[in-house]
Amino acid sequence: MELRTLRYFVAVAEELHFSRAAARLGISQPPLSQQIKALEEELGGRLLVRTNRRVALTAAGTLFLDEAREVLARAERASRLVSRLGRGESGQLRIGFTTSVPLTSLLPRTLMHYRQRYPDVDLRMHELNSQRQITPLLEGDLDIGIMRRATLPPELSAFTLIREPLVAVVNAQSELGASDTPLSLAELATQPFVYFSPAAGTGLLDQFNVLFAQRGLTPRLVQEVGGPNTIISLVASGLGVSLLPESFRHIHIDNVRYRPISDADARSEVWLTHARHPLTPQAQHFIQLVREAIAD
Amino acid sequence: MELRTLRYFVAVAEELHFSRAAARLGISQPPLSQQIKALEEELGGRLLVRTNRRVALTAAGTLFLDEAREVLARAERASRLVSRLGRGESGQLRIGFTTSVPLTSLLPRTLMHYRQRYPDVDLRMHELNSQRQITPLLEGDLDIGIMRRATLPPELSAFTLIREPLVAVVNAQSELGASDTPLSLAELATQPFVYFSPAAGTGLLDQFNVLFAQRGLTPRLVQEVGGPNTIISLVASGLGVSLLPESFRHIHIDNVRYRPISDADARSEVWLTHARHPLTPQAQHFIQLVREAIAD
DNA sequence: TCGTAATGATATGCATAGCGTATCAAAAAC
DNA sequence: GTTTTTGATACGCTATGCATATCATTACGA
Fold first, then answer.
1. Pairwise CA distance, residues A65 & A50, whole Å
2. Which CATH superfamily groups domain A92-160+270-295?
3. Do B79 and A43 touch (CB under 8 A)?
4. pLDDT per residue as tens digits for the range B42-77
């Protein structure tokens, strides 16, 4: 017994006429008669009484009509559900992102596009620092991670979404806050620094260390903090200077001034990271949209 | 998409191994791979991830596994239910019978056999006189009627189950009750009669009338009643004599004596009647059992 | 590091299931 | 009685699904 058999039977049972049913099914009448006959033989009893040029359902046929409709409807439903899920039109997409990412316009824009295009996908955003995204990505608890540049295990793959300049964060009342002209890292390094503690897990700290070490500079850290907002607040209070990606300029706090860095390599990257092999269709679509957004 | 496809997919999803699944299905591995591939193309998304010599389900595949199992189970159930019903192993059987029929051993015996053999058939017995069985039989409200010989419309078909002699029912205190020897109808007709009213609808009245008319006899009816038990009671009270099929001897009432009738044609028939064309399998089985019981 | 085993994918040929055309048989309608 | 309707039957063909042979990739062991 196959679904085709059920479709044929339902057609005959509804039309109560073999030729009309065959026309509706787009086949000719003889094979339809044969299939119904075979079905009756398989079930071991008559489903239809063909008498006096009139076709009628037996009790068994009436029952089978209900059952066959039910089976067909379930099969149809299964196909529809799985098709949508498999095409990435439903299901879920879990994205990890760092604090700084919402400040760039790329992510909010792409998320908006994605939600418009795939409104039935359950989008789950998890704010996690770069380090803390790695394990969930490896274990399949996150589909996509958006993070600052970091050292990744080989099972993860990444590409650059954004490459943005670093800017000095200085107190407007201080000596360095008197101007808006570019500063060199060497100049900045003369000042007391407020920066992330290693426990904050941000990829920015690595970039920070590398940049200064390459120049033989060792800035004096007066305060280690957990998040960028704290950094900016402490700079506002005059505790020291700092160095952050340009997108943090969007955070306006009294007494804080952002100055460009003259060093050409003072840049930070935002990465899109994912486990290497089996990307879900939802993740593929998201990445596709991100790439299109970058291309603009 | 066919049920076969679903069976194949379930096998692969359960084994997570194409070759083992193919072995379980009794086919070779290549066609299995092809069918799964075709299924994935039809649904428009991957159901399985074949990676690193390991097969795993995607989210869509996990959903489809549940759905496919459900569809297959429903199809299986439909097949089982309808098969039983179509084979006459379940469903119902509606039998009409007259008052006198339970007195013969044939019907109780056959019913017992039928219930043993087809315990899941809902057997509905309706006590109805011969006339009142005809309409339900014609309209499909009864499958089988068991009745005394009657004139039937051509849409009904019948055969004889029992042919039994008639016996005289006489009062033990009366002149005719003094002996057990055979009586002729002519002798009996000299006595006042207790018999069925036409409203009782029994086929016995027809037979009664025919028998006496053929002999030019017109017995004097002193009382018309509705049922055989009343006849016997009234005979017991001395109101008159009567004529009933032999099986009524099973009703023992004080002061009633049954005497054989010497006329060879003084016989009554019990018929099994049914609508001509589409007998339900349940009715066919019942008739089969009755015929076997008669053959013994 | 290289060879070997395991495993799914691909290529190709064949058998059969299912379809179409032609025709029959029975019954109803005129 | 003739014609029409309609499901069943006969028969040939095609396409689907299967088997055999082989390939490609990867993991594993020496």
1. 16
2. Periplasmic binding protein-like II (3.40.190.10)
3. yes
4. 999 999 998 767 899 999 999 999 999 999 999 999
